[in-house]
């Protein structure tokens, strides 16, 4: 699929957005003449959104005149909250070169695809610099949240060497796990890592849990959660098997960043109830094990190497488990855990989500639920007064056709037009 996003029908809106002063103006704008899908489930067939000082002031039916504020005519298209990417890996290659040569265009690519917020789950210090540059206005981009890695156990010295390419190809959870306890890490070492993460400006602590027999993983995770909470740093957890996802609930982390895709929740009702019952949100990341097809139709894995077909069961089990968790009441948000260009990753995740979720479900997943999964539902994710003025205008009705989410015409972040086709 090509993602040019250009159609002649948009010409009038393009001209309006190109008018002098609109793209560069302050954080005040009135968006009118659009079908509002506000992220809460409410739809206004023809309405207006008023943003003042970067925050939503009003959402109403019909047109509204506000003196002294520029008006953007949506041309009958859909007005909805900015998209939220709840689990992404951003930096590739040399971090310094990435920050100077790649980041400006990559950050703009997120805006072009409709993403006004991105959680970078594990990236180096350059991502903190990029976050701060975006926040202070020296680089355009989505609102960035940053995480850094804290281990829950030491490496098994007898473990076989890692296979080439992405470690997800040979995840220990997939091949049966360890046969003995992993080495523990000293408490003070863990606390020192967390303190360093705070001093380096990270927002979240991220860890990976593959439990071992009588291993230290859950006790260490409890320590990480406790010490992170003391420092205002929520803990987000990678646990990809049903067994491990159920186990980490005992540590009460803030967020689960993967749908468990190894093991069947329909065969484990106790695990299903435990994972969904604690009120811990989860991001989807279903497309990791879905083949990504290049322009020649070659099936690739997340690492851009040939797709490992022996992992394909996860492409089916992940969506099934996702729907079961949704029915059990979990807050399920959007995340890709990929490094493909933002719109390509969006398309891959939509393909997976569409197996078990309706277009209306997916609207909620990529807006309100993804904001909740990043622990910032009070700031963005829905079009409600007081929240950030993060808005996308899409060509089509995403409540009926999820591919409309690929046809972003305009992106507005905190009341500023940051992308227009």
Briefly summarize what is shown:
This protein has 421 residues and is an alpha/beta fold.
Query: Mind summarizing the main beta sheet?
Result: 8 strands, mixed
Total helical segments? 11
Quick check: average pLDDT?
A: 91
Give the SSE order as H and E letters.
Answer: HEEEEEEHEHEHEHEHEHEEEHEHHHEEE
Number of domains: 2
> CATH topology of the largest domain, what is it called?
TIM Barrel
Structural class category? alpha/beta
CATH class of the largest domain: Alpha Beta
Number of strands: 18
Shape: globular
Task: State which percent range the strand residues make up.
Answer: 15-25%
The gyration radius over C-alpha positions equals 22 Å
- Span from first to last CA? 18 Å
How would you sum up this structure, described in words?
The N terminus is likely disordered. The relative contact order is 0.18. The protein is globular, with a radius of gyration of 22 Å. Helix 6 packs across helix 7. It starts with 10 loop residues before the first helix and ends with a strand. It is 29% helix and 20% strand. The protein is an alpha/beta fold and 421 residues long. The strands form four sheets. Strands 1, 2, 3, 4, 5, 16, 17 and 18 form an eight-stranded mixed sheet that branches. Strands 6-7-8-9-10-11 form a six-stranded parallel sheet. Strands 12-15 form a two-stranded parallel ribbon. The protein folds into two domains: 121 residues, Roll (Urease, subunit C, domain 1), CATH 2.30.40; 297 residues, TIM Barrel (Alpha-Beta Barrel).
